[in-house]
Amino acid sequence: MSWLSAAGFVVLFVGLLVSIALHEIGHLVPAKLFGVRVTQYMVGFGPTVWSRRRGDTEYGLKWIPLGGYIRMIGMLPPRPNDDPTKLRSVSTGPWQGLIENARAVASEEIKPGDQGRVFYRKPWWQKVIIMFGGPAMNFVLAFVLFAIVIMGFGIQVLKPTVSSVSKCVIPAAQADKRECRPSDPLTPAAKAGLRPGDRITSVAGTPVSSWEEATRLIRAHGAGTTALGVDRASEHMTVNVDLIAQDRPALDDPAKIDKNVGFLGVAPTAVIEKQGPGYVVGQMWDLTKRTAASMVNIPKKMVGVWQAAFSGEKRDPNGPIGIVGAGRIGGEIAASELSPENKIIFFINLLAGLNLAVGMFNLIPLLPLDGGHIAGGLWEGLKRVFARVRRRPMPGYVDVAKALPLTYAMAALLLVMGGLLIYADLVNPVRISG
377-389 pLDDT, tens per residue? Predict the structure, then answer.
């Protein structure tokens, strides 16, 4: 590994640790604001490397930098009708015993005078805010990082200015495999005499200001004659073109094919432009929807990781990666032949995407993820609304302790997934080139 690769690995690794630390701050700040006693704020797991106590809270770093946590007292409520300051004998049954032992451990952290500072006693909406604070911090980080790239450096934008004209019509399946042949028909653009530098201003009388607008109108038109408004040098003209129908990759999903859409045969001009906050919001929303959709396929994706880890087949570049894999990608970026500016952009985009993915993953409504506690808080609030509407006694706190067997199973699954990703990232990493 070259020093550039090592530097890139370290930079991205540190960026992820900072993201983890800020995620936990997203929980810590509202917890303290609402009066919950927080005993620990830790980045990492395992033995403690360094720590300092400030007030009620011990702040520190641990040896295994694969996550972090804050420790709040009273995460588990006592059994209904129990005095939270007194312990009862453990009930029989393996699962019930496990739950009661967990309650006992949780109650040991509660000191005299702490009854008003326990998590489970807080109003449901405060619980939701505290647990949503971590993912929210990831979303804020992702937004800020994407904004730095989009508003600060700019992004590639396709303009409706012709950069090149295809000479002949080649079937889409062969477009990347051969050159034009004498027997191949001319493209509509070549027949109409379009030239590089021509700017398309309208399609069939509809004004266009972007390449996407022009492309959608041309595709929707299908085969047949249409008029293009064109600016050539300082002259405006109307060019009639005979569009043909062709199968083309879908604009919204290049893996799919749009059948018999209108085809012109020109390539746009790519320029780098800085965008405004509205564009950042739109991009963030689009990426959030895609990330949420990809969460549904996590089990399938993890099967692919398993197969790649033990069979040697190529990893899916769009599949999940761990913190080690992300660091390796950082090293590969640093050692690449990209310009320094493009390397910075790549780093920022990668870190932003990872924050978005971490935030979305933590919202899955299963314990021990943040989403499980959020779901519990929302359920408690819903029960209380129904009780108020029906004029019934207020229900007790939602007993998340009852979900502990599932929580432990989920935690074990997360450990297995994390271990598999680390192993796969070491023996068969995702690569951005080749």
Answer: 999 899 888 888 8
Residues 172, 173, 179, 183: what is their CA dihedral angle, to the nearest 10 degrees?
-80
* Domain range summary for the chain, segments of one domain joined by +: 3-147+352-427, 156-273
Q: Is 24 a catalytic residue?
A: yes
pLDDT given for residue 229 in this prediction: 94
**Which candidate, 402, 410, 415, places its Cα nearest to that of 95?**
402
Confidence (pLDDT) at 80: 62
pLDDT band at 213 (very low <50, low <70, confident <90, very high): very high
pLDDT at 88: 47
Q: Flag whether pLDDT at 401 surpasses 90.
A: no
Residue 244 phi, psi dihedral angles, 5° rounding: -115, 160
Annotated catalytic residue, options 24, 100, 332, 380? 24
Cα–Cα distance for residue pair 206/228, rounded to 1 Å: 9
Long-range CB pairs of 106-115 (<8 Å, 24+ gap) are: 106/73, 106/74, 106/75, 106/76, 107/78, 109/39, 109/73, 109/74, 110/73, 110/74, 110/84, 110/85, 112/85, 114/37, 114/73, 114/74, 115/84, 115/85
The CATH number of 156-273 is 2.30.42.10
The DSSP bridge partners found for residue 393 are none
135 pLDDT exceeds 50? yes
Contacts (Cβ under 8 Å, ≥6 apart) of 70: 24, 27, 28, 31, 38, 40, 41, 42
